[in-house]
Amino acid sequence: MLPLTYVFFADGRQGRKLIMRHTIRSAGVELSGNMRRQNHLDSPANTMPDTLREIPLPPHVYVPGFSPRHAPTWFDDIKASVRPDIPPHQLHRTDAFIAGRTYFDAGFFWECHEVLEAVWMQTRDPSSERDMVLALIQLANARLKVLMRQPRAAWRLCDMVETHLSRCPSDRTVLGLYVPDMLSQVSEARLIAKDAMYRTPRL
To answer: What is the C-alpha to C-alpha distance for residues 5 and 42, in angstroms, rounded to an integer?
Structure first.
């Protein structure tokens, strides 16, 4: 996943409304502002099969309490890619799932959850596909909670991610994702949450 640096600042010309901007650095490439191009890393853990088409990024990162929410219909076309006739094991090839991975990698965690809900609703219960989608959704939620200055909630969400992953086979991919790679992302999220705990006063 791409390491992110977030800068919060108040724009006096906007009535001191709090605005979030982001800078993404990976493999010597810097992207900022309204990024529109999906970037791929060489590692299988960080790439999605057949993701050559472009996925548009939202105009800004939405963090509840810190930045404005997106228009209600912004994600409708992406979510509509999850059709009832798509087999569950092929859901990772939909625009919605690809967008979810793209948004997570780019630090759009709320947005990741938003589009992946359409994928989750198409999975069978119980199934490894459902657990993998829920693991990715809750991992995005954990990262979002850190941005919302709720690191302890993020830690609890990591527990939920691990529970979902424990029900997935570890010897093959599920929706293009390996359990060991996902567990590495959980460890990274825990480190970020733990660091934030030292900097965030308990409410």
So the answer is: 22
Q: Structural domain of residue 8, as residue ranges?
A: 1-32
pLDDT tens per residue across span 9-66: 223 223 223 333 333 332 222 233 333 333 333 333 443 334 446 889 999 999 999 9
What is the rounded CA–CA span in Å between residue 138 and residue 164?
9
How many structural domains comprise the chain? Answer: 2
- The answer to whether 104 and 76 are in contact (CB under 8 A) is no
pTM metric for this prediction: 0.76
Domain shared by 173 and 114, yes or no: yes
Q: Does any domain span residue 200?
A: yes
Residue 45 lies in a domain: no
Omega within 30 of 0 (cis) for the link into 49: no
Q: Which residue in 174, 177, 179 sits closest to 162, CA to CA?
A: 179
Query: Is the Cα dihedral 102, 103, 104, 105 positive or negative?
Result: positive
Q: How many CB atoms lie within 10 A of CB 31?
A: 17
Residue 183 has which token pair? 């567990």
Structure-token pair, residue 104: 């997570």
